[in-house]
């Protein structure tokens, strides 16, 4: 992921693979980038990006992939499961139609 080093400092790279061969619904080799930046004012920002599978007959894969990504983001941004945390930008190609 490219970013402006004069505006942000890389704090954590929690990129993850979404392939788990023992799980039928996670048997495709996709990945997600999850990066935590510290802004120059000291605040933090989580930026996540992924490209999900498109298969109209396998919506279970897309749902499982999104679930894994959101769970990882939650653990990074707010590990105590309380209120607070910091902002998240989650961008992805959701592959909702063949022309997407």
Provide an overview of this structure.
It is elongated and about 45 Å long. Strands 1, 2, 3, 4 and 5 form a five-stranded mixed sheet that branches. With 100 residues, the protein is an alpha+beta fold. The longest helix has 19 residues, at 59-77. Helix 1 (59-77) links the parallel strand 4 (44-51) and strand 5. The model has no long low-confidence stretch (mean pLDDT 83). 19% of the residues lie in helices and 31% in strands. The protein has one helix at residues 59-77; strands spanning 8-13, 16-17, 31-39, 44-51, 88-93. The chain has one helix and five strands, in the order ββββαβ.
List keywords for this structure.
alpha+beta, 100 residues
Structure in a nutshell:
By secondary structure, the chain is α+β, with helices and mostly antiparallel strands. It has one helix spanning 59-77, and strands at 8-13, 16-17, 31-39, 44-51, 88-93.
Write the layout of secondary structure elements.
Elements: E1 8-13, E2 16-17, E3 31-39, E4 44-51, H1 59-77, E5 88-93
Parallel strand pairs: 4-5
Antiparallel strand pairs: 1-3, 2-3, 3-4
Task: Tally the helices.
Answer: 1
Structural class: alpha+beta
Provide the helix percentage: 10-25%
Which whole number gives the mean pLDDT?
83
Largest sheet: 5 strands, mixed
Strand content is 25-35%
Q: Tell me, what's the shape?
A: elongated
Report the C-alpha radius of gyration, rounded.
Answer: 15 Å
Number of strands: 5
Unreliable stretches:
none
State the end-to-end CA separation. 22 Å
Secondary-structure element string: EEEEHE
């Amino acid at each position: 992921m490219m970013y402006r080093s004069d505006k942000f400092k890389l704090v954590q790279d929690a990129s993850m693979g979404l392939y788990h061969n023992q799980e039928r619904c996670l048997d495709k080799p996709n990945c997600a980038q999850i990066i935590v930046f510290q802004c120059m004012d000291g605040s933090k920002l989580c930026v996540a990006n992924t490209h999900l599978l498109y298969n109209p007959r396998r919506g279970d894969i897309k749902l499982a992939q999104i679930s894994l990504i959101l769970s990882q983001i939650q653990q990074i941004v707010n590990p105590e499961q309380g209120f607070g945390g910091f902002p998240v930008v989650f961008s992805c190609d959701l592959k909702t139609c063949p022309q997407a």
